[in-house]
Structures are given as C-alpha cells and as structure tokens.
Amino acid sequence: MRSTDANPKFSAAPHPAVLRTATFSPFHGEKGRLRSGTVGVLYTAPALLFVAIFVLYPLVQLFLTSLTNASLLGGSDFIGWRNYLRAWRDATFWRALLFTFKYTLLITPILMILGYALALLTLAAKRIGTATRAIVFLPVVIGLGSSSFLWFWLFDEQVGLINKLLRDWHIISQPIVWFVDADLGLWAVIVSVVWKVVGFGMILFVASLQAVGEDINEAALIDGASYWRRVLHISLPLTARTVLLTTLVSAIGSLLAFDQFYIMTAGGPESKTFTSVYWIYQNSFIYFKQGYGAALSAILMAIILIASAAQLYLLRRWSRT
C-alpha cells in the first residue's frame, strides 16, 4: 500500500472545499470570463450613460447646429461650413481669443507660484497652518459671480476700499478709475480671480507635499542641503504630477473665462476685454445667432484641446527631466 493511501492526510486527492471552490467559482473558465466582462460593463454602465447623455450628445448637437443658421428666434437651415468661414474672417473673435490667451498666460503662473508658496508656508507653520489653510481656502466655496461683484465694488473709484487704502498710504493722490483702461481692468480681474481660486491649488499642493516622505527630507538635511535646495531638488520633482494637473486645470479654466469679465468690465472699454466665451455669448444670446455661436464654440473647443495636449506633453517632459 502506498503511503498516500495509508495516510489520508497526505492523500493526492484535493480537499472537498477546494473542489467546491473550483466547481462553483463564478469566474471559472470561459463562461466565467464572459460573466466577469458582463459584470464590468454593468458597473461602468451608469458612468458611460452619463457621459453619453451629458457629454457626447451635446457635442454632436453642437457640431450639427454649427452647420446651420439656427436662431433663438426660430428657424434653422443647413448652410454647411459658412459659419466657420465667417469665423475665420471675424476679427473680433480672434482679438478676443488673443486677449484670452494673454489673460491665461498672466494668471496661470501667478496661481501656480502663489499656491505652491502658500502650501510651503502653511506646512512650515505647523501651529497656525491648519487655520491659515482654512482662511485661504474659504473664498473657493464662494461663487465666481458673487466674488466678482464683491471685487467690482472694492475697485469702485468712489466708494471702493482699494482706492481708499491706496490714498491713505499716500500711493496715489486721485482715485483710479480701474475699468476705463483695458490693462487696469485686466489686472483688477486677475487680482479678484487669484483671491478666489488660489486656495484650490494650495490644498492640492499641501496634500502632495505631505505625501513626500519625511525620511527623504531628513536625509537631505543631514547631508547639508538648505531649505530651498530641498524644495527645488526634492519637493518640486516629487510633486511634479500635481503641479502638472493643477496647471492644466487652471489653464483650461482661464481659457473659458466669462463671469468675471462680464460682471467687472462688461467687455470694455471698446470691447478690449472681450474673452472668447464672452464673444460666443454675445453672438448666441444677444444677437440670437445660435448657429454661428455653435461654430465659435466648436473652434474654441478644438483650440483648447490642442493647447491642453501641447501643455500636457511639455509638462510631462519637464517632470521626467
């Protein structure tokens, strides 16, 4: 008699529990794999349905509308690519787009640098860091329209607090009329938006910096690395992905700027602070040219996709170096 037969403990036959598991496993064999795939599709179905209804369908409708002369007053005829040809000759649209790029190039670095600096400062000040982060983040929960109205009155030449402070500190002798000059109006909007959204980037940077291991910083400190060398050569490279994400989100949001300019400058003076979205709004809802507005929206969407892809490529190359 073999030893395996004499001693059931060492029997070659599988344990009954193993047999039950292998026999009744829902994902066993080809049918199990198919069932697993079906379960995966069912789990993702709500998200896919949401994207199809609220993203893909509106995009298709946008493109179809851009090929018509649809008006909010009624009527819609197919006109092909005429709206796109008209947009190519629309000097106001391209001027608004250039202004939007100018605004984006100015505000994005400010938000990134200031947000990262605030994250470093609040992490260094451990006793008051949490309270400081809460105070800086508080404007993020305020609506952009509300914050724009607030800063519009703060910059008012007659009753605004900004002019009063500048006069009390003897920086100016006469009140500044901020919104009659395009450059002053632009910087007033930038100040209001930085106050509103810098806390969002700060919180992302704080979370990313807290994920950096203390042992890495301690090892660099033992080797004699100064604070700024540790920030530049340890913290910044290890948080590069968060910097990339925050920069991309900030740039896209700036390219879609509308509320702050609509409320604070109304596109003036002489339409010099028109953003691209503002001009789309004007054509779609003031001039009732829904088809042309859809064509401008499609062009802006394509430009944002190209700019985002280029930015993502450059930032990824930078994070790898």
Describe the structure in your own words.
The protein is mostly helical and 321 residues long. The chain has a single domain, classed as MetI-like fold. Helix content is 73%, strand content 0%. The protein contains 15 helices and no strands. Helix 5 runs antiparallel to helix 12, helix 5 packs across helix 14 and helix 14 packs antiparallel against helix 15. The N terminus is likely disordered.
At the third CATH level, what is the topology name? MetI-like fold
Percent in strands:
under 5%
Mean pLDDT: 86
Number of domains: 1
The poorly predicted ranges are: 1-6, 17-27
**Cα end-to-end separation:** 69 Å
Itemize the secondary structure elements and their pairings:
Elements: H1 3-6, H2 16-24, H3 29-66, H4 82-88, H5 91-124, H6 129-137, H7 144-154, H8 161-168, H9 182-210, H10 214-222, H11 227-238, H12 240-255, H13 259-264, H14 276-286, H15 290-320
What is this structure, in a nutshell?
This protein has 321 residues and is mainly α.
Observed structural traits:
321 residues; mainly alpha; MetI-like fold; 73% helix
